Amino acid sequence: AQRVTQPEKLLSVFKGAPVELKCNYSYSGSPELFWYVQYSRQRLQLLLRHISRESIKGFTADLNKGETSFHLKKPFAQEEDSAMYYCALCGGPGGYNKLIFGAGTRLAVHP
Amino acid sequence: DVKVTQSSRYLVKRTGEKVFLECVQDMDHENMFWYRQDPGLGLRLIYFSYDVKMKEKGDIPEGYSVSREKKERFSLILESASTNQTSMYLCASSLYHRGTGELFFGEGSRLTVL
Question: How confident is the model at residue A69 (pLDDT cuts 50, 70, 90)?
Answer without folding.
Answer: very high
